[in-house]
Amino acid sequence: MSSAIPDRSALVDHARASIARGSKSFAMASKLFDRVTRERAWLLYAWCRKCDDIADGQDHGGAMSSVADAQARLSMMRVMTHRALYGHATGDPAFDGFGVVMRECGIPHRYAHDLIEGFALDARDWRPRSQADMLRYCYHVAGAVGCMMAVLMGVDPEDRATLDRACDLGLAFQLANIARDISEDEIADRCYLPVEWLVEMDIPPGEHMKPWVRPRLAILSRRLADMAAAYEESARHGTGALPPRAAWAVLAAAGIYGDIAREVARRGEHAWDHRVVTPGREKLGWVMRAGAQVPGRGRRWPADKARPEGLWTRPD
Predict the structure, then answer these.
(1) pTM here?
(2) Which residue, among 114, 117, 96, 106, has the nearest Cα to 47 in the 3D structure?
(3) pLDDT in tens, 152-162
């Protein structure tokens, strides 16, 4: 490992290149932040992307490969993250940059550990039995990132109400991903649909991508899309606590990712014939729409409105 952490500008350059390769949607939304927030978001993204790639044997979110040494990869991820959190050089710009942004923003370490626990579930070939299990997984791999992003954007780490809304946005994103990626996950021998859902629809284990099951699977994808919409709507009630440009980015990202879930539901049993993406023109449409929503966001989505009782709540 290198004995010194690279210059911050070099870490930012690496992170910018990572997001340009790994997520066009997040790259577009991040342009709406002010420069400092944008760079910090890139640094956080690069670490998330690197951890995901390590866990899944990917390269910037490409095709997943079979990983025979999952526990060893998880152990390396933990060690590198620990070093970064405590200001030690790791020799990897994604981890070094992560350490920089965590210290700059005072982001609680527990969220980083919570994210890694999501990768630990995958390393154990874990499958959700219940809807609550699935949502707990969504928290670990995405809701925790939402909490980190909120603190990065200036939310007080003790502001539980706003952090709950930020977590909701992460849950909405991950539910959309689960709906969209059912076929890709099946190829990698993974399934994030709750076993109880599959039993309810009389879908045999391991058979959920068979052609004869597609109509039933489409019902479950619509259920996921409806759940994603509920968490997306809840998340919007946290935007009043954000600076205007941060709120603009969050509202744009919510619409862009929300369209993924909505399109999966619209396509029905053909949702997995081709990967669902939000086209560039529609992303730009959300950027403009979100910009118009920023001034009145506090009135349209009041922060004091209680979260619906049926929504899952992150652990203390």
Answers:
(1) 0.93
(2) 96
(3) 999 999 999 99
